[in-house]
TrEMBL record:
Species of the source: Alterirhizorhabdus solaris
Protein name as catalogued: Glutamine--fructose-6-phosphate aminotransferase [isomerizing]
EC number: 2.6.1.16
All residue ranges annotated as the SIS domain in the record: 38-179, 212-354
GO BP: any one term: fructose 6-phosphate metabolic process
């Protein structure tokens, strides 16, 4: 049932404050200022390396997790798409944890990669939305997302719930490895607990995003730029737009622009820049200026301070609530989803059932 919403995708976008809160609720103990995961059958503190494997949007959630795990737990993280991981003779050493991220828990390549990692002696952790799925059954450490059934083929609420779980996982691993003080953990838990309200505040910009969708819908190509943990969000934004509006889009690490893609820039290519205030802001904005100097039309997604500082010469700006850089990827997912949604509606595509795509990809 779509309720008052025109499409399942929009309904699911709007469910995010609630389902992210539900998901966080099962991993955070806000009163104690602690994260608590289900206790695995193995010793998390003994993990020396994490290998993340997933496909599509779930892979981008995994990319964000790599930044978090390396930053907080100081454990090296490797990440690969499942269809590559299986066939490249990955080196799997003792003390390795393989972490699989999947909404459905049935994606054929991810499942095969899981079995391959198990044969290679890895402990298996699974972040999955369908608790009865095959991957859930085969996990040593099951980390469910509580997004509820996702009907829209383009993943939205499953993604932000995956991020919520992965953030909790990174913090728990960091604590177990002795890399996080109780005080730091308390601070991070407080920031994570702010995510649902921040998502809610981001949803308030729906009308503004709808109003600019018409101009993006005319484009043949769109670029998305981000840095650090917001770089995967650029990839996710481009994937979402491609999937449902059929407009060609690419996501790039903002600093990679001048190594090639900047050649594409002219006044016909909108460039969506994801730049929350924080340590990487100035660097991203200087890449944005390189785009503008070549006539590129920029949509800047930032917070009030960021837009006050850099929003002047943009085609449009979208104001996000000011959040800690840790939760920015969770919050910035919202405008990225809404933009793809409204552009697709302008183009009149079948938003919930895009051509050529299936909800669960059970063939290789
Ligand atoms: C994109 C999308 C796909 C899935 C991918 C993996 O909107 O939904 O890219 O993320 O097919 O599916 P799961 O997460 O079920 O393994």
């Amino acid at each position: 049932d779509k309720g008052n919403h025109r499409h399942f995708m929009l309904k699911e976008i709007y469910e995010q404050p609630v389902v992210v809160a539900q998901t966080l609720g099962s991993y955070l103990r806000p009163l104690e200022g602690r994260v608590s995961l289900p206790v695995p059958e193995f010793d998390l503190a003994g993990i020396r390396r994490v290998t993340i494997v997933a496909c599509g949007t779930s892979y981008y959630a995994g990319m964000v997790a790599k930044y978090w795990i390396e930053r907080f737990a100081r454990v090296p993280v490797e990440i690969d798409v499942a269809s590559e991981f299986r066939y490249r003779a990955p080196v799997l050493e003792e003390g390795g944890l393989a972490l699989f991220v999947s909404q459905s828990g049935e994606t054929a390549d991810t499942l095969a990669a899981l079995r391959h990692a198990r044969e290679g002696g890895q402990k298996i952790a699974v972040v999955v939305n369908v608790p009865t799925s095959t991957m859930a059954r085969e996990a040593d450490l099951l980390l469910p997302t509580h997004a509820g059934p996702e009907i829209g083929v383009a993943s939205t609420k499953a993604f932000t719930c995956q991020l919520a779980v992965l953030a909790a996982f990174a913090v728990n691993l960091a604590r177990d490895k002795g890399r996080l003080s109780a005080e730091e953990e308390r601070r991070i838990v407080r920031h994570l607990a702010e995510a649902p309200a921040a998502i809610n505040a981001a949803l308030a910009y729906d009308d503004a995003i709808e109003a600019m969708a018409g101009s993006i819908a005319q484009a043949r190509d769109v670029l998305y730029l981000g840095r650090g943990p917001d770089y995967p969000l650029a990839l996710e934004g481009a994937l979402k737009l491609k999937e449902i509006s059929y407009i060609h889009a690419e996501g790039y690490a903002a600093g990679e622009m001048k190594h090639g893609p900047i050649a594409l820039i002219d006044e016909h290519v909108p460039v969506i820049v994801l730049a929350p205030s924080g340590p990487l802001f100035e660097k991203t904005i200087s890449n944005m200026h390189e785009v503008q100097a070549r006539g590129g039309k920029v949509v800047l997604i930032s917070d009030y301070d960021g837009i006050a500082e850099a929003g002047d010469d943009c085609l449009a700006t979208i104001t996000m609530p000011k959040v800690h850089p840790l939760i920015a990827p969770i919050v910035y997912a919202i405008p990225v989803q809404l933009l793809a949604y409204h552009v697709a509606v302008v183009k009149g595509t079948d938003v919930d059932q895009p051509r050529n795509l299936a909800k669960s990809v059970t063939v290789e």
